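Re: the 581-residue chain
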Amino acid sequence: MPNLSVTIGQTSIAGIKPENEDFLGSYIPSQETDDAAQLESKGITVAIADGMSGSDGGKEASQVSVSQFLSDYYGTPESWTVKQAATKILTALNTWLYSQGQQKYGTAKGMVTTFSAVVIKSQTAHLFHVGDSRIYRLRGKDLVQLTRDHRVWITNDRDYLSRAMGIDTHLEIDYRATAVQEGDIYLLTTDGIHDFVGDKEIQEILETHKNNPQKASDSLVKAATANECDDNISAQVLRVDYLPEPDKTEFYEQLTQLPFPPDLKAGNVIDGYKILRELNASSRSQVYLAEDTLSEKVNGLPRKVVIKTPSVNFEDDPSYIDLFLHEEWVAKRLQSPHLIKVCGMDRKRTFLYSVVEYVQGQSLKQWMSDNPKPTLIQVRGTVDQIARGLRAMHRLEMIHQDLKPDNILLDEFNTLKIIDFGSTKIAGLAEIKSVVEHNEIVGTANYSAPEYFKGESGTNRSDIYSLGVIAYETLTGKLPYGEISAERASKKKFNYVSARQYNPMVPDWIDACLRKAVHPNPEKRYGLLSEFLSDFSKPNQALLDRNNSQPLLERNPLAFWRGVAFIQLIIILLLVFKFIL
C-alpha cells in the first residue's frame, strides 16, 4: 500500500537586494523513524514567507513564521484537524510578532511578513494564506491561482499590504481545503516571482520540468532574474507522486495482527493479568476484573484492572475491530480525572484486548435508581463533573457521541468518570481516508441528539444534548421526550415536556436551561459547556424571559392540550345542562 509521497524543489535568493528577507521550508515525516505515524496523522507541509518591505524585522519575521509553523504543527494533538492546528499556531505567532515588533522597534510595522502554506494530509490539500505570497496548482494543462493577494493598490505603481502576519493583534487567515490528485503540482511563490513572471511562462516552466521540481524552482528564479526582478526571489514546487489508497485486504491484516483471546475464566492469566471474575458480557464483548501480577503492588496487593475482550462473533468484521482499537487510541490521549484511564502500555500483548483502570463503585444509572430524589446541589455537582470530562475531550476535538448514565462511573470518592470511547468522533482522524465505514447510529437512542437520526454529523452541541438529557433524568426520573426507538426516531416529533411536570421542585430557570440544552435544533442549543453550566448554576433572566414569552403550546404542549380538553369538557357539560333544562 503506497504511502503519501511527494517531491519538493525550493529555491530562494536575495536577487539585487543586499539581503534575503524571504524564507521557505518544508517537512516530510520520515517513514524510517518514529515520525512515520505523523505522515498519516499530520501529513506533509511546505511554507513560504516574505518579510514586508519597510519592516525593520521583516527578515526575522519570515524566518520565525516558517520555522515555528513547521515545528509546532507536528507537535499539536493528533486528534486536531489540520485547520484547528494551523489556525492556533498562526494566531499565536501573529501575537508574538506584533508584540516583538512593538518592543524592539516601537511600531506596528516592526516584524511583519506574508505567509502561505500547504499541508497535504491523506487525499486533501489544506491551504493557509496571509498577504501577497501565492499558491498555484498545475493539474494537467490547467494552472490555477488558489489564493488571492491581500494587496490594496493606491495608484498604478503604489500599493500596500492589507493583511499580513504581525501587523495587527487580529489575524484573518484565508483557509481552503481541496482534493488532491496524483501528478498535481503545487507552486508557492513570493512576489519576486509572480510580479515578474507571467502565468503563461510559469506554466511553461512547470510543464517543462514537471519531473524535476528542483529544476522547476531554479528555472522560475532564473526567469524572474532575467525579467529584471528588483526584489528577493523565492519559489517552492511540490509534486504529488503517490496518494495513500487504502487497501482493504492489507488494512484488515493490520487490524488482525493479534488473535482474539479465548474465553477467559477465573484464574486464567493473559500477559500477566490474572482473571478474577467476569463483570459483564454481551454479544459484542466481554469485560473482566483482573489482577496485574507484573506491576508494583498497591497497599501490598496487586493492582486491579479491567480487561475488555472482543467477541469472536465479529472476528471477520473489520468495522467492529476498527471501533474496538479506536477506543484505546482515544483513551491513551485523554488526561482528566473524569475520564477513564487506559493501562497496559508497558508490555507486549499476545491477544487483542484493552486494559483500563478499575473503578470501584457504581454506574450513574445505578446511583440514579438508588437516589430517585436528589437535591439540586447533588445534580449540579454531577453535571459539573461530567462536563469537566467532556471539556477535556472537546479541547482535543473529540466528541464522545455515546454519553449516557451507563457510561458514567461513580467511584468510592464520589468522583465521576466517563467510560466507553468506542463511538468517539475524532476530527483529526476523520480527515484521513479510510476503507472502514461506520454508518450506524453510534449512541443510545434515548440520549442521542436528534441530528444523528437525520444522518448529520455530531458536534460538541450533540454531547451537550446528551448531558442535558442526563441532567433532566437525574432531576425527574424521566426523559424529556420519553422513550425513543432508534427505528422510529427520524420521524419522532420532539415536544419538550417541562421538568416541573414530573418534579415541581425544579425551579423555572433550571427548566428553561434544560429546555435549551436538549433543544431538537442544535443551533438553538448551548454552543459551549461553560454556557450550560453557568445557566444551570444561577438564573439567566434573559433566557427565562424568552422561555416565558413562548406560546403555551411550545412551552408545555401537554398542559396546552389538557387545557383545551378541560375547556371542551366545560362546554359539553354546559350544553348537556342546557339540554336538560
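The chain has four domains: 5-245, 251-357, 362-550, 554-581.
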